[in-house]
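BUG: 3D viewer hangs when loading the predicted structure for this chain

Environment: internal workstation, default settings.
Expected: structure renders.
Actual: progress bar stalls at 90%.

Input used:
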Amino acid sequence: MEYKVLVEIFLPEIEERYEAYIPINKTIGEIVDLLLGLIRNQHDELPNDIKPKLYNRHSYRKYYGKEVVRTTDIRNGTELIMIFRTPTATTEDY
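Structure tokens produced before the viewer hung:
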């Protein structure tokens, strides 16, 4: 598994957490899409228009969609938070 890292992902809106191996040669946007697809399989109640954002749980660093995982500080054991944001939400909501 030299090309993947094991991370823990916290989802506060649905009060769940997951462990996942993510490939280091993919972009954050691709990872978010993959994770969202897996989460949607288990939670049908999620709205279709959410735009998840990924953050480091300890440093609060926001990861952007075009960043490649290997160029970030994401390593084995990193704890991430995925926040669901609807297009109608304002910055005061977050």
